[in-house]
Each structure stands twice: as structure tokens, then as C-alpha cells.
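hi! just following up on the protien thing from before. the input was this:
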Amino acid sequence: GQNHIETANVLRMLGEICSLEGDLEEAEELINKSLLICQQKNNPASFYSFESLANLYLKKATEGKTEGDAK
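and the predicted 3d structure came back as:
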């Protein structure tokens, strides 16, 4: 179902794939959906989503610095 913990895991993994492909906005949306499901279920696996978000934000910050240096 839409709010099953396995759905959350799939959303997180899809978000990580989007991040690897450079679609950071889509990645953020998918990972946030995953996190929301985990939090609603009070599932301890939510830390995976937090970790994925941290990696995504680090990537965004790094890319932002690189783009800023190029200007």
C-alpha cells in the first residue's frame, strides 16, 4: 500500500537513484515522502531516510559551491 514501510524503502531508493542521476529536486521529493511514511509509522528505519537526505543536501551544497566557483 501507499503507506507501507516497504513503499517507503522503495521511495528512498528511487530518490537515491535520482540523486545519482543528477535530478536532485525529484530525489528530495521522493526521500521526503519516504521519511514521512517512516515517521507516521514510528519506524526506526527513518534514519535511512535522514541519511539519504543528508547525503542529498551535501551533494546540493557541493554542487552549488562548484557552480559558484565557475562564475
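The chain has a mean pLDDT of 93.
The CA atoms of residues 58 and 64 lie 10 Å apart.
cheers
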